[in-house]
């Protein structure tokens, strides 16, 4: 039989039998280092462009400081975390923030409909803490192995070099988890008015760990004191006709004028564990934690008060990584977080070089001297060593002439992990449609009108079969949502509703206020059944 040339393979020629999930210990467990398929895929993706960033190429940055309140809500911060940067009052921690768009090239307009990057480097007395997030609180996908596919679909066509609507929706149609993000992105929230009047979020789930070694799941958020302001497509077009870098200009002009932008830093907290009582998995970054159940608790404030001296040296060469955490802040098993932690630092080593942390913009606080046994590599210009001998670049040293390990905490956090190693699809997927519908209903009328106009216009550029499937998806989020998209795109709603559920995906429930499913994990080879 002739070989099927449409079978996806690795670069080694191995057939890819599951391109939807990383290998993890159990459905919610951590990823493993032997994720060869994922590592090969993501490290190749990180090297697809040079020297411009593959994503977040268009950016602006500013310096400032962060100051903790010493409390999380009404509780002492120490109840939840031993991180000094969140506990010590009266200490102004230096920060550098880089704002960006995601899909556009370095010189692309800042009015593009695109998530905005919101990356903060806090130079604490315990080393750097990078909080790398976006302006929106969620993301398109929940498994990092899909990130190269997602960006490929959103970037220009490899043949025409044009961004095509059909490529975007062709990917989205296969991933109902993306509907929530699409609902945000295609509304005015997809075009923030500027960087000052924009929220920020770590997006992923982290853990706070206290002195007793007790952990809590958490999400981090930046709330602008200037308020939030977004643009309609018409408003963005009018600005773009006059200025493709309006957001950078606004940020720099306001700081130079003394109008220093300020954000309040907040966290959401829930107990560590699976939290099975929730309809969504708190580790799923396509879902928001409802703020009526998990309120935003103030932790501190950030002020930006200085523009860079040199754009290239500071903004372009600034490098962030989700793995850059301080003691008292830890990783969760969020699959996107675990994948990003490898990818971000890997792409910085490729893009800027193996010694990118020696650059002043990326180096730790001046009072925190880096002392490692790492040597050499491109562009080395000093040796970050310690100990009494420059000859000893290893550890341990019997003669005691080199570096030694830091004291261990009296009580540390130890996560129990048990499960079968494999590739897992999540089973708590009710809110793939529910939260998108809820978001649609909470928009103001003008926001809904802009959302419908944007999506309808896109679908007119897509093949009919793809456009009908997207109407089917939106109707299952909210009946009015789907009906209005169909009308705007000139499609027959009833024709769309005759489509069957996606193969291999659970069928949405019939309740348009939010689909529900029967409890329990489906047997292998079966679909979850929709509750009547």
Automatic annotation (TrEMBL):
Heme binds at residue 344. GO terms for cellular component: cytoplasm. This is Catalase. Decomposes hydrogen peroxide into water and oxygen; serves to protect cells from the toxic effects of hydrogen peroxide. Residues 9-403 form the Catalase core domain. Keywords: Heme, Hydrogen peroxide, Iron, Metal-binding, Oxidoreductase, Peroxidase. Its EC number is 1.11.1.6. GO terms for molecular function: catalase activity; heme binding; metal ion binding. Residues 498-532 are annotated as: Disordered. It holds the Pfam family Catalase-rel. Belongs to the catalase family. The lineage of its organism: Bacteria, Pseudomonadati, Pseudomonadota, Alphaproteobacteria, Hyphomicrobiales. SUPFAM superfamilies: Heme-dependent catalase-like (SSF56634). GO terms for biological process: hydrogen peroxide catabolic process; response to hydrogen peroxide.
């Amino acid at each position: 039989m002739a070989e099927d040339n449409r079978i996806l393979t690795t670069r080694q020629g191995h057939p890819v039998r599951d391109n939807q999930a990383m290998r993890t210990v159990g459905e919610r467990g951590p990823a493993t280092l032997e994720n060869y398929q994922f590592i090969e895929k993501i490290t190749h993706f990180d090297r697809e462009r040079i020297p411009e960033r593959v994503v977040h190429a268009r950016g602006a940055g500013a310096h400032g400081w962060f100051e903790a309140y010493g409390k999380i809500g009404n509780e002492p911060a120490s109840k939840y975390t031993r991180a000094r940067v969140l506990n010590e009052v009266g200490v102004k921690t230096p920060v550098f923030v880089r704002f960006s768009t995601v899909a556009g090239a370095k010189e692309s307009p800042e009015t593009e409909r695109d998530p905005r990057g919101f990356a903060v480097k806090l130079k604490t007395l315990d080393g750097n803490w990078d909080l790398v997030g976006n302006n929106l609180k969620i993301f398109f996908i929940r498994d990092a192995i899909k990130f190269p596919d997602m960006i490929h679909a959103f970037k220009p066509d490899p043949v025409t070099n044009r961004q095509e609507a059909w490529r975007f929706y062709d990917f989205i149609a296969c991933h109902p988890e993306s509907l929530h993000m699409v609902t945000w992105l295609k509304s005015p929230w997809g075009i923030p008015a500027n960087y000052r009047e924009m929220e920020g979020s770590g997006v992923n789930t982290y853990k706070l760990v206290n002195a007793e070694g007790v952990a809590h799941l958490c999400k981090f958020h930046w709330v602008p004191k200037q308020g939030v302001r977004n643009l309609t497509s018409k408003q963005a077009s009018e600005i773009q006709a006059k200025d493709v870098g309006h957001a950078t200009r606004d940020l720099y002009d306001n700081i130079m004028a003394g109008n220093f932008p300020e954000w309040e830093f907040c966290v959401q907290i829930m107990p560590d564990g699976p939290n099975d009582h929730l309809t969504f998995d708190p580790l799923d970054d396509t879902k928001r934690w409802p703020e009526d159940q998990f309120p935003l608790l103030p932790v501190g404030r950030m002020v930006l008060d200085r523009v860079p001296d040199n754009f290239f040296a500071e903004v372009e060469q600034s490098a962030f990584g989700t793995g850059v955490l301080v003691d008292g802040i830890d990783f969760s098993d969020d699959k996107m977080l675990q994948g990003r932690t490898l990818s971000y630092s890997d792409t910085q080593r490729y893009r800027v070089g193996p010694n990118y942390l020696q650059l002043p913009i990326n180096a730790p606080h001046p009072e925190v001297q880096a002392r490692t046994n790492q040597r050499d590599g491109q562009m080395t210009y000093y040796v970050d060593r310690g100990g009494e001998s420059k000859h000893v670049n290893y550890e341990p040293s019997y003669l005691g002439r080199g570096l030694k390990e830091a004291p261990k905490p009296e009580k540390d956090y130890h996560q129990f992990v048990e499960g079968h190693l494999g590739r897992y699809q999540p089973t708590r997927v009710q809110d793939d449609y529910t939260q998108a519908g809820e978001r649609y209903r909470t928009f103001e009328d003008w926001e809904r009108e802009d959302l419908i106009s944007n999506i309808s216009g896109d679908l007119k550029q897509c093949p009919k079969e793809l456009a009908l499937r997207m109407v089917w998806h939106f109707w299952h989020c909210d009946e009015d949502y789907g009906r209005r998209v169909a009308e705007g795109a000139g499609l027959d709603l009833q024709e769309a509703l005759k489509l069957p559920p996606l193969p291999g995906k659970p069928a949405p429930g019939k309740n348009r206020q939010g689909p529900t499913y029967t409890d329990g994990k489906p047997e292998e080879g079966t679909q979850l059944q929709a509750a009547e």
